[in-house]
Amino acid sequence: MSAETRILLKTLARCLAMACAVQLAACHECEYQQRCQGDVLQVCIPAAHGVGSASDSYQPCDGPNPYCVETGDDTAGCFHSRQECEVDASTDSCDGDVALRCDEGGHEFAEDCAASGNLCASNTPTGARCVFESFTECDEETPRRCEGDLLVRCVDGALEAMDCAAMGQSCQMGEVLVLCLPN
């Protein structure tokens, strides 16, 4: 028996003897967390509590973020461009109803504002973002409201809509809260 095999068997025995789920899960870890296969994001899902084996999840990069980019140590994501960008809200922009922003790692990502019933506004204090109708400043005291199945609320100082119908729900006003709830 080789030295490597003895070490592996001792490690497995220790994991089992201690009945430690954390150590057991470490025995079945992934070789990577996230990586790109062309423009498909591959995510490794570790075995739950050491039971079974790790599995892969594949997410095609499409829509406003069609490019898979490896961003660092075992991380990757779907982005609007393969080019790096400057992390500065003043460089954010709108392309129609798509908000183009630079994330903390210097990668450009896009958010389709129209998909959630919003518009893109580039004149907000936090750069380009999705807003309801037009950029309207608000604060935590601004009440939520329903406009049909759109829940209009204040998020980071701007009114934003969430499309409840897109989630198979409807916007409902209660005595205290306004929420998207199942029909």
Layout of helices and strands:
Elements: H1 3-18, H2 21-26, E1 34-37, E2 40-45, E3 55-60, E4 67-72, E5 75-79, E6 93-95, E7 98-102, E8 108-112, E9 119-121, E10 129-131, E11 145-147, E12 150-155, E13 158-163, E14 169-173, E15 178-182
Antiparallel strand pairs: 1-2, 2-3, 4-5, 6-7, 7-8, 9-10, 11-12, 12-13, 14-15
Unreliable residue runs: 5-9, 15-28
Mean pLDDT: 81
Helix content: 10-25%
The oligomeric state is: single chain
Number of strands: 15
Going by helix content, strand content and strand pairing, the class is mainly beta
The Cα radius of gyration reads 23 Å
Give me the number of helical elements: 2
Largest sheet: 3 strands, antiparallel
Write a brief caption for the model.
By secondary structure, the protein is mainly β.
Would you mind describing this structure in some detail?
With 183 residues, this protein is mainly beta. The chain has a domain at 22-79. 12% of the residues lie in helices and 39% in strands. It is built from 2 helices and 15 strands. The longest helix is centred in the N-terminal third of the chain and has 16 residues, at 3-18. It is globular and about 50 Å long. It starts with a helix and ends with a strand. The relative contact order is 0.09.
